[in-house]
Design brief:
This protein is mainly α. The chain has helices at about 5-15, 35-50, 55-70, 75-95, 95-105, 105-130, 155-175, 180-195, 200-215, 220-235, 250-270, 280-285, 305-330, 335-350, 360-370; strands at about 20-25, 30-35. It has one domain (about 5-370). The chain has a two-stranded antiparallel sheet with strand order 1-2. The longest helix has 25 residues, at about 105-130. The protein is globular.
């Protein structure tokens, strides 16, 4: 079996489909995407190739703590624990992808894959914006009422914006050999990012560009980027029928403040090990924070609009310490590309649960292995 071809085919198809189609698995709360199926297949391949060794130590530490917190969440019943265990297993599989990538794909092939995925994200984003600018019909599936915003196949401007930021970071640090093509892709990704109207993605972009300017010792670079950003914001089109294109909108700010408040209250009451990994929806229902009839399906019920607060509320201070150990391990790789990407996710994750977004985890895995390829042997720890 050609493992590289399998990896390429599954990931490219997954990024094209995105979240456009997902199906439920034994519960309306568990929705499977094509990417999930792909990662399951890749995990099986990795287990066979690496003789069962797929977990690196920092992943194992947080996996043990989060699983322990889940096993203690008996108050919500076995169904909640089963759902939580499914998402726990999914996180373990996604964060174990570097083992497979490191032992199956060369550094040059990884670069090609990242370029192809970048082309897919940019192309699908623009096709969606031009031909399907109104994704409000997906509201009944739990998505927000986005209108004339770049949402891509992920159907979410916030996460599509972050993926476009990843591409901009990649092209800024590792530009393509053809400068005109690289500049064209950078421009298309940048305009796509601007049209997401995602303020958290804007922040991630500026933080990443500031870091790149610092390692280049060129604040002129950041000044030019900042000037371009200001001009872009000033000339952004404003649709009179779209609340989401108003950067001064306050509804989403209030929603995030409520999400943070709820998360802090739950964490305060369960400080050591939280309420249990990924049973947060049940905790919100118990506290009365979600009362709608579709509480089992609504995306707002499953997490907090902050990754670290989500970790604290579901796994407590012990889990947060273990998770920070995992992030520190990722950041320890001496690669500007990985560090800039992590800083972008960290700033973005203050407002969305970005660190647990599947497509983000895949991209970080690719960058991690690509960054580590030239400074260490394949990962087996």
């Amino acid at each position: 079996m050609n493992t590289k071809a399998v990896i390429f085919g599954l990931l490219i198809t997954s990024f094209i489909i995105g979240n456009i189609y997902r199906f439920s698995f034994f519960s309306p709360q568990v929705r499977i995407s094509f990417l999930d199926i792909s990662v399951i297949i890749l995990t099986i391949v990795s287990l066979v190739r690496n003789k069962g060794r797929i977990i690196i130590k920092p992943v194992a530490v947080f996996a043990v703590v989060s699983l322990f917190s889940l096993l203690l969440s008996t108050r919500y019943g076995l169904p909640a624990q089963m759902i939580g265990s499914f998402y726990w297993l999914r996180w373990v599989m996604y964060t174990s992808l570097p083992i497979l990538f490191a032992n199956s794909v060369s550094s040059l092939s990884l670069r090609r894959l990242m370029i192809i995925l970048s082309l897919v994200i940019i192309s699908v984003s623009w096709l969606q914006y031009i031909y399907f600018p109104d994704i409000r019909p997906w509201f009944y599936l739990g998505w927000d009422l986005h209108y004339y915003r770049v949402a891509g196949s992920f159907l979410d401007p916030g996460f599509t914006g972050l993926m476009l930021v990843f591409i901009l970071i990649y092209l800024s640090i590792s530009p393509l050999r053809s400068l005109p093509v690289s500049s064209l892709l950078w421009g298309l990704a940048y305009l796509g990012l601007a049209l997401t109207y995602s303020r958290s993605s804007y922040l991630a972009f500026l933080v990443a560009m500031a870091y790149i300017a610092r390692i280049r010792h060129s604040w002129k670079f950041f000044s030019l980027v900042l000037l371009l950003f200001i001009i872009t914001i000033y000339f952004l089109p404003r649709s009179p029928d779209g609340e989401g294109v108003k950067l001064e909108r306050t509804r989403s700010i209030q929603a995030r403040l409520d999400s943070w408040r709820n998360g802090l209250i739950i964490w305060r009451d369960h400080p050591l090990l939280g309420v249990g990994f990924n049973v947060y929806r049940y905790a919100q229902k118990e506290y009365g924070f979600i009362t709608s009839a579709d509480w089992q399906q609504t995306h707002a019920g499953s997490g907090v609009d902050s990754s670290l607060l989500f970790v604290g509320a579901t796994t407590g201070i012990i889990g947060l310490a273990a998770y920070l150990y995992y992030l520190r391990y990722l950041y320890s790789v001496s690669s500007p590309l990985l560090r800039a990407s992590l800083l972008a996710v960290l700033s973005h994750s203050l407002f969305l649960n970005s660190f647990f977004y599947p497509f983000v985890l895949v991209w970080l895995s690719l960058i991690f292995v690509f960054s580590k390829a030239d400074i260490s042997p394949p990962l087996h720890s």
